[in-house]
Structures are given as structure tokens and as C-alpha cells.
Amino acid sequence: MQSPSIPARHRARRLFVTAAVTLTLVAGSLTGASAAQAANPYERGPAPTVAALEASRGPFATAQQSVSSTVSGFGGGIIYYPTSTSEGTFGAVAISPGYTASWSSISWLGPRIASHGFVVIGIETNSVLDQPGSRGDQLLAALDYLTRTSSVRTRIDASRLAVAGHSMGGGGSLEAARSRPSLQAAVPLAPWNTTKSWSTLRVPTLIIGGESDSVAAVSSHSIPFYNSIPASAEKSYLELNNASHFFPQTTNTPTARQAVAWLKRFVDDDTRYDQFICPGPSGSAISDYRSTCPLS
């Protein structure tokens, strides 16, 4: 079904994009790729395909650098970023691992997402025992570090930021999104949190759960979380067939495909990715999919 409304920041962006298209048509001097970029200044990379989203890497070459554990607000980590300097700035994503885990447990997500045109910071938490609230604060601290202090800050558009995480890190991404409604997207993976209602969350959120999760059972975590988020925020729920709580800890194509599509759609405002969100993925790997379907 279509959402009855959409957050104000996305409405404003659409007005901006519409104005840019009108100016392009009036000027009549732009064609091809340059016209597309004028229509959406956040658009990065070629037109998407299923094959491109399912490949081990996207269209951008990437590099990485370490962040010291002495940094303020979180426990350090690794930054992955596109090496291209011809595309302008990129959106950024901070990702937290789960309870007792380190970034290495889900580190495949860093270069995978970055190669589609994002700066990604995979964080280490201050303590592996940190709870979701603390992880949410640390995700926000990592975004602040990226945009204000890091050596890649000039590559980042500080108005286009997102959070993600696994397990308690996924619960932390919900906490971060609720605390900072200016974020453009959240992607909790097998999220765990004692809070079940997220009715005040306003950030477009994709929740990915595992059907056979015995740690954060979808019936008491992912599904109630999804149901409680207002439709006006834009939301989707993807459930992986027979997947355990630990599905993000190995390379998982459905997870990567949908996460990238969601980030491209809401961080880059790239409506070329609508096709992957609505009607959404299907097949033997998917046990459930629900979405408010973003408005184009």
C-alpha cells in the first residue's frame, strides 16, 4: 500500500528535484548523464540492476582507513570510502556490531555498501557488553566524527546520514534514529531491544529479520518494531527464510541488496531504486516482505 504522507525533508527534496528538472527543460542545454545529475544532485552511479545489487562489489572503487580506539564517543573502527573525486560528496552510514561482537563479525558490509557510493564507518563499541541505548549514542558519535573530524569529512554530505547495526547494534540504530530525526535512513539487522514501540520514530527504516532467530525472535522484536513505526516515516520489513540471528555475520546477498537499495533510495533520494522496494524482493530466500512503498 502507499504511504499517505512522507516526511517533510523528503517532500522538500522532491520540490527541489522538480524545480531542477524544470530548469533543465527550460534551459534545454543539458543532455544524458549531466541532465540526470541536474535533476537529482544526490544521484550517484549508473542505473541499478538486480545483477549489480547482487554482485560482491558496486561500481565504485573503495579504500579504507582505521580509526583509533582513543577517539571520543565510540571505540574506533574502520572507514570505507569511494576513491572517486569526480562525483561530488557522498552520504555516510555508521554501522554497529552486536552484543559481545566486534566489527569484524559483520565487516563485509563495509566495502559492499561503500562500493555503491557511500562513506561507511564500521564501529567498535566502547564495551562489547554495551546495550542498545549506548550503541545508538555511539553510532551518532561516529557520524559526528565522520563529518566533523575525520580525514574523509570533505567527501561527505553531512545532511545525508544513516545508521545500521546487528542485534543490539540494530536496536541501537533504532535508538539513534529516534534521537536524531534528521537522519535519512536506518537499517536494523536482526534487531534486539527491550523497547517495543517506536511510534515517535520519523526516519525511513528497513528492518531485516531472520525467520528462525532464537535470540531476537521476529515475533517479539522485528515485527513489533516494524508495526509500531508510523507509516508516514516510510518503512519496510524483510524476513529471511530459515535464517538464524547470525545471518548478517556471513555474506548475505538479500541483506546487501535490500540495504543498498534502501540507502540509495532515502540517503541519495534516488527513485531509480523504488523498483527494489515496491513491490520488493521475493523468492525462496524470503519468508515475508512488507512495505509502505515510498512515494515517487
Automatic annotation (TrEMBL):
Q: From the UniProt annotation, give the residues forming the signal peptide.
A: 1-38
Matching SUPFAM superfamilies: alpha/beta-Hydrolases
The domain of life for this entry's organism is Bacteria
Instruction: Please give one Pfam family short name.
Output: PETase
Q: Which GO terms describe its molecular function?
A: carboxylic ester hydrolase activity
Query: What keywords tag this UniProt record?
Result: Hydrolase, Signal
Q: Which InterPro entries match?
A: AB_hydrolase_fold, FrsA_esterase, PET_hydrolase/cutinase-like
Start and end residues of each PET hydrolase/cutinase-like domain: 37-294
Q: Which residues form a coiled coil?
A: none
Instruction: Write down the PANTHER family for this protein, in alphabetical order.
Output: DIENELACTONE HYDROLASE DOMAIN-CONTAINING PROTEIN-RELATED, POLYKETIDE TRANSFERASE AF380
Q: Which family does it belong to?
A: Belongs to the AB hydrolase superfamily.
Protein name per UniProt: Putative dienelactone hydrolase
